[in-house]
Each structure stands twice: as C-alpha cells, then as structure tokens.
Amino acid sequence: EQIGQLASVPPPEQVEVGPVQDEGRAAVGFIVGIILYMGIMFSGQAIAMNVGMEKSTRIAEVLLAVLRPSQILVGNVIGIGIQTLAQLLVLAVPIVVALTVAEGGLDLPSVAAGDIGLGVAWFIIGFVVYAFLFASTAALVDKITEVGSAIMPVTILLVLSYVGAVVMVPMGPNSPLSITMSMFPLTAPMAMPIRWASGVAPVWQLALSMGLAIATAGLLAWFSSRVYQRALVVTGRRLKLREVIHEQA
After folding, report:
1. Contact, 20 vs 199, CB < 8 A?
2. Residue 87, helix vs strand vs coil
3. Distance of alpha carbon 190 from the chain centroid
4. Shortest CA distance to 72 belongs to which of 234, 243, 231?
5. Of 33, 55, 94, 244, which residue is the least packed, with the fewest Cβ within 10 Å?
6. Please, is 23 exposed, middle or buried when counting C-beta atoms within 10 Å of its C-beta (0-12, 13-18, 19+)?
7. Residues in contact with 190: Cβ distance below 8 Å, sequence separation at least 6, in sequence order
8. What angle do CA 212, 36, 71 make, to 5 degrees?
9. Window from 65-79, 170-184, 195-209 with minimum mean pLDDT
10. Is residue 129 within 8 Å of 189, Cβ to Cβ?
11. What is the pLDDT of residues 125-171, one digit of tens each?
C-alpha cells in the first residue's frame, strides 16, 4: 500500500533554466552578429584603403576642384556601403536556399525574419559609425602603406566589440556588462542584435540603443568631415589627429 501511494505521486515538472528564452532564435542572433562584424570590418578597411589611395596618388586634390571634401568622404562611404551590403545579400541568399532545400528544411523560429531584418538595420548603423572612423584616420596618412597602422586603433576597437558581443552577451544577456555593451554606440551594432535575439531585451532599450547609435553616427560624420577636410590637403608627412583637432579649434 505504501509503495502504491508513492508510485501515485506525480513526478515534479522539469524546467530547463538557461540564459536565453529561445535557443534557436539566439543562434540566429549569434550568426547575425558574426555577419555584421565581417561586413563592417571588410567594408571599413576597403574605405580606408580607398581614402589612402586617393590621398597618396593626389587624386583627391583633383576631385577637390569640383567637389567639397565632405562630398568626397560621403561618396566613399555610400558607394562602398552599398557594394558591401549587396555582397552580403549575394552570399546569404544561396546559403538560405541550400538550407531550405536540405533534408529536414530550414527550421527557424517565427521571429527570426524580424531579427534578420533588424540585423540589416544594425549593419547600416554600425557601418556608418565605423566607416567615418576608418575614413578619417586613413586621411591622416601620406603613403598608402601607412593605412594599416593608422586604422589600427579603430580595428582594435571593432575587434574588442565583436569579441565582447559574441562571448559575454550570450553568457548573460541581462548582466550589467551586456546591457552596457548593447547601449554604448560603438559596441551596440554587434551586441544589441545578439541580446535582442536572446529575448530578454525590452523594446525601450532597443529604441534607445538605436537612437544613441544614430546620433553618434551623425556626430562622427560631422567630425570626420572636418578632419578629412584638413588632412586631405596636407601632404609630405603623416598627420596626427591632435594636430587636425588643434587646427580646427
């Protein structure tokens, strides 16, 4: 009788406790973060090399006869940005098609499409933020061989942002560090898509993060245009950023 009473007790409900609400959706966010990093890194370096080539070959001086410095800078950013976004789409479409026709099909959460669309928006914002940083630092060089060392601080910042986003955010999306990274404009383009896909970020934080990043992009566009305007016409030596800032002041 005692054994029967014990056997009739229903087992406790098993609940898995994890850092994210939907692991499939979090995986999509993780992949989006990697693609964003690669796209911003490659496009930023392409912009830097283009700016360095224009200055070292004196092509920029010819362009200044018909264009303002800000127009040259924005033209570089927009042109390479569109090219990079098109390349990402060309690479992404065959992958999605292959996964869809594969055995079992593509099993994605229903909200994955929204997360991917949000990732595209974050790519545009992050690209603008870092593109102007890459362009303005590259304008300080005198020879194209100096571009790599000139953009190294921006590259290191981007790498640290990416590593922090893909390592720290999935481990604790609601930790103080993850929240800070997802709100700080220079790290938000990589961190917020991953944190949003984890399902724990409120809408107001997403909106505030995007607003701060867009405002920072506008500020960097203005600042970089001023640096670019001054650095573009100085040849014969490599400029330092504080020289340009002091001259503008």
Report:
1. yes
2. helix
3. 5
4. 231
5. 94
6. middle
7. 33, 36, 37, 126, 161, 162, 164, 165, 166
8. 65
9. 65-79
10. yes
11. 888 889 888 988 888 888 888 888 888 999 999 999 888 888 888 88
- Tokens for 221? 């566009």
Q: Six-digit token pair at 211?
A: 């607003």
Cα distances (Å, whole numbers) of residue 117 to 28, 32, 161, 186: 12, 10, 21, 20
**196, two tokens:** 């949003």
Rounded CA gap, 108 and 89, in Å?
Answer: 18
Distance of alpha carbon 189 from alpha carbon 125, whole angstroms: 7
Residue with tokens 């995007």: 210
Q: Which residues of 185-212 are buried (b: 16+ CB within 10 A; e: fewer)?
A: bbbbbbbbbbbbbbbbbeeebbeebbee
Name 2's Cβ contacts closer than 8 Å, sequence gap at least 6. Answer: none
Q: How crowded is residue 104: how many other Cβ atoms within 10 Å of its Cβ?
A: 6
Per-residue pLDDT tens over the stretch 28-69: 667 777 878 888 888 888 888 888 888 778 787 777 778 887
Q: What Cα–Cα distance (Å) separates residue 217 from each residue in 186, 221, 228?
A: 9, 6, 16
Q: The tokens 């303002």 sit on which residue?
A: 68
Amino acid at 2: Q
- pTM recorded for the entire structure: 0.77
Beta carbons of 127 and 39 less than 8 angstroms apart: yes
- Angle 228-229-231 from CA coordinates, rounded to 5°: 60
